[in-house]
Structure formats: structure tokens, C-alpha cells
Amino acid sequence: MKNFEGKTALVVGGSGGIGFEISRMLFKNGANLIIHGRNLQKLEKARQKLKSEFENKPEIKIVPFDFEREPFENLQNSGLINEIQKTDILCVCYGPFLQKSLDKMSFSEWQKISLLDYALPGICVSAVLSGMKKNHFGRILLFGGTGTNFRSEFLTNAAYAGAKTGLGVLVQSVACGFSDDGITCNAILPGFTETEYQSEKILEEGKNKMPGKKLIERESIASKAEFLLKNDDLNGVLLKVDRGWSPLNAGK
Fold it and tell me: Which residues form a coiled coil (predicted)?
């Protein structure tokens, strides 16, 4: 497909970071855009920014829901799930990062990471599939973590990496089970990327670990997302965008 005109696209976590660049790419390509975010003020700012950049485009709908403040069970009957059920293109960019060794993890941190980095994308996928099957069209894009394309060992972020590694099973299960329904499901696994959500310390550590000693740009991630969403030959792909990062070359 050349563009997304006539399609409704919803970006979970679309008001900042990588998610905002995904929102921009979809809107530029003509999608009827729905942006989810935690903060209504930030959502409105994102909407106005996109409307000012691209004239004569459809209206942008915003849907606030704070996963970390509202009871998680409220999601089931929320406006967000209602919108997801009607969308053609679903991108789940939201997923909090936690760098903590296993012996320091608390009960609440395990619960948060398991819910928000694995269960939440799964809930969104389950909510969207019926409508996509009915329309015989669907595009789903999820986001893994650096180095989570296969089972491995992690010393400082095993809980986060474990949840993100599990998304690979979800992606390839959707691709296998729903390809005959015109649905594709892929994931991008970014290397260390500069966003406003990470501290200067974590960004500096990430930069020093990356080949070339520089962080991945958000715009680069968005261009890879566009490629995956437009190409129906790509299904079940776990796309590493990390310049060949490996624990073996990290910090060289």
C-alpha cells in the first residue's frame, strides 16, 4: 500500500518519544489518526504540532488513559479499548523501561513490568483482531527492547527484557494465525534511542554501548515502521534497528 488514506490508525503512547514520530509518519501518510497518551495537555500539544505541520489533513483524535495511575482493570471498558476495536492500524509504542537487577526487584515492579510491557500489548492485540478479521485488513506494530529478539541473559534489566522477549511469541503467533485474514503483525526492536523518557545517565550509558557511539534517532525508527506497515509481504518480523549491537561489542 502506498499510503494510509481512508485507514484509521491508533498509536498507544503516541504523544512523545518514538511514539510521536510514529504518529507523525502515519498522519503524513493520510491516516485518520488517534493518539493515546497519559497526559491530556501533552496530547493536545502533540495534536496541535501535527496539525500545524501538515495542512489539509484529517482531524486528530486524542484519547487519554494513564496506565500507571488508573486501576488497570478500568482499561477493559475504557474509551481507549473502544477505539482500538475499530482501528485498522495499531501501533503499541508504550512500554516503560526499568533497569534493575533481579535481587532488587520489588513485588510492585514485577507487577508493573509484566502488565505494561507484555500483558498490555497482548490486550490491545486481542481487542483489535476481531474488527481486522471482519474487514480483512489489519496492520499491527509492537515494540520490543534492545537485544530481545531471542532468549538471552540480562544482568541489569532481566524483568523488562523478559517481557519484551515474550512479545516475539505474540508477534509471530498473530502472523501465523491471522495472515489469511489480511492481517500483518511485526515488531521493531530498537537499539538505544534518544527520548525524553530516559535520564541523561541512561542515555549516556546507552550511547557508549552503541556501535558508532551515538544513539538511534527516533526518525529512523519511524521510517522502519513505515516500511513494515506498508509491505504486506512482511509478517512476523522482529526487526532489529540497532546497528548490530551485541553484548559482545557493547562499549568497544
Answer: none
